[in-house]
Amino acid sequence: MLFRVIVSHEEIRRVTLESVPESVKELCEVLRSNLGLRGNFILQFEDPEFGNQLCNLTNIKDLPTDRATLKVLFTCSDSVSDSTLETASISSPSSASGVEWPEPFVIPDFSHDVELQLRAANDAYAKDGTVLVISKSVKSEILDKLADIISKITPYPSKDHYESVATALVEKHPCLREPGSAKGWYCWVFSLKFKMGNYRQRLVAAGCPEVVVNKRKMGQTKSKAIKKSKKGEIHYLPDPPEGQSTVTSEEKRKIMLQEVQKREPNLQLLDELMTATFSQRRKEIIGDEPLISVVMESWPALFSERQITAEFSRIVTTDLVQSFLDGLDALVPGLLQLYKAAVSSSRRLTLSSIMDSLQKEDTNQNRRTAALLGLPRFFSEDTSDVIRMCDAHDQTLDVLMKGMRVGLLIGYEGVLHDAFPLEIFNVAVVVEETIVLHSVRDVPTGFAMLMGTIYCLNLEYPCKMRYSFEFLQRVIMKIKPDQCSARIHGLRNKLLRYRL
Questions:
Q1: What is the rounded distance in angstroms from the CA atom of residue 144 to the CA atom of residue 99?
Q2: Gap between the Cα atoms of 206 and 203, Å rounded
Q3: Which DSSP helix (H) or strand (E) runs through 90?
Q4: Under a CB-based contact definition with an 8 Å cutoff, are residues 373 and 419 in contact?
């Protein structure tokens, strides 16, 4: 039987089962295993007898015979916000992954006695502007409750996150405003930071993966960089599925190793095994930071366009290729106009060869390629260790890949007379001087696969092309677009003017 499963607005999955489970409970367990769902949830289905309106699934016999559309509704006792619960497709009570930061932040209700004190103090503030002289116990309870809610979203909130919580707190309870600060919440931000530091110690003791991975080892004195979501990852370091131990996850990994060695592996089975072992794979890649050779040996099934796309979707809950190409196509005309204007004003003469190559064969694919390859030239960035052209039959790969930490090899046939080859033979993704993905059909798809590989392997953007990659993420793919640097923000504004 074929199921269309709506996990969230961004994640809609296709699941095929050989037979229908005997009960709703068994169906929930099958979906939990296949989709990597965690936490409590109920199922709804589109009932054809009511015009395909959603109804709660209480009896398995109510399902249509051949195919059905299901919606997963997560249930949770603590209300962070209604909008965030539906996105938690791979979340659990001990992990913050999968929940977007709510805008605005919703201040929870505190204990009954604290609420009574705040209500009376708010009335007094409304009358004459008197602020509450807060006791240690009341302040401690407020901070504890807020830290608990914040940790369910992220154990490592940013400066903006702290400020949004403090702002929401004094807006809901104006009696907590600080008379000595301009915005009324300056000291609340510092208190929240200290409280979250203490709360993370409790999360370490509870075994939260996102915090345990940053635990300082015995004898380690020098602090290391915090491992946390930096590129808009939704499921950065998720918990394993309920009931799945390290042993069972390792058994599934071994089954996957056997399957991938077959001449014609079962792609559906590989999809299911990759989903089931997602937590273990992220723990190894983020926690151990292995060499790419070790990752390829342990997880060979990951290194295909199909699995890179699927893994990216699990991490970011966004379709990799579609989001990249749709965003690129919307910006190509503006980018090319911007390049042309820069060449005319002699500010970016290096772009002239890109524009000259495009004029020789102005196709949609070449326009995409010109827009992408022109980005680092527009930013005056060095591409020598990230993007390299090679004759498919005339150069040694080991020499070509020397010094490439992460990047693209663009293969062509014959002699290259232009800034980029008009006919591509092969595009390959390189990590640590090793080809991890090859036979990509064109340069735009190659860039999409490169972005997917960076997310899947938790890699940093190349320093020499950091603005180009930031543009790809925040402007083209629209992942955390509100957190772009001033330079990217300026370019985006220019492109918007061109579109107007």
A1: 20
A2: 5
A3: none
A4: yes
